[in-house]
Amino acid sequence: MLFISHSVSIADSEIEMTAMRSQGAGGQNVNKVSSAIHLRFDINHSCLPDFYKERLLALQDYRITKDGVVVIKSQEHRSQELNRQAALDRLVMLIRQATVVQKKRRATKPSRSSQQKRMNKKTKHGQNKQLRGRVSQRDH
User: Based on the number of CB atoms within 10 Å of its own CB, is 18 exposed (0-12), middle (13-18) or buried (19 or more)?
Assistant: First the structure.
């Protein structure tokens, strides 16, 4: 069982994991050991509550296909077990991230003193720039 929250969990049978060889440098170990993990999780055919499914499918994430399948590849560790745990952790984080409800932004106005400070700062900056102007030549 993969626990998302205290009331939501995913059965191991709903998560499909396959081992494969990692890419990139690593010498002989990379060529002979299948340490990378390819995780697939079908959102539509899962036992997640409808709220979770809707939020996940609405996400614009490159790991979610058009068919509603989450695909995560983990290959940062040398051992298969660590990569398996990393992939599961990423799946949990993705699901938790999807369910976070953003707080509504309340429009506010800048305070009168902040507006006054801003105008004073602009005036002072303009005066400094004016002092940098060309110095006029006096007749001797």
Answer: exposed
Q: How many residues does the chain have?
A: 140
All residues at 6 or more sequence positions from 9 whose CB lies less than 8 Å from its CB, including other chains: 1, 2, 3
| Domains of the chain, residue spans | 2-99
Q: What's the confidence (pLDDT) of residue 126?
A: 93
Question: Residue 66 is encoded by which pair of tokens?
Answer: 């058009």
**What proportion of the chain, given as a percentage, has pLDDT over 90?**
17
**Which architecture, in CATH terms, is 2-99?**
2-Layer Sandwich (3.30)
pTM recorded for the entire structure: 0.63
Q: Is the pLDDT of residue 109 over 90?
A: yes
Cα(85)–Cα(83) distance, integer angstroms = 5
Helix (H) or strand (E) holding 118: helix 112-131
27-62 per-position pLDDT tens digit? 666 667 777 888 888 888 888 888 878 888 888 878
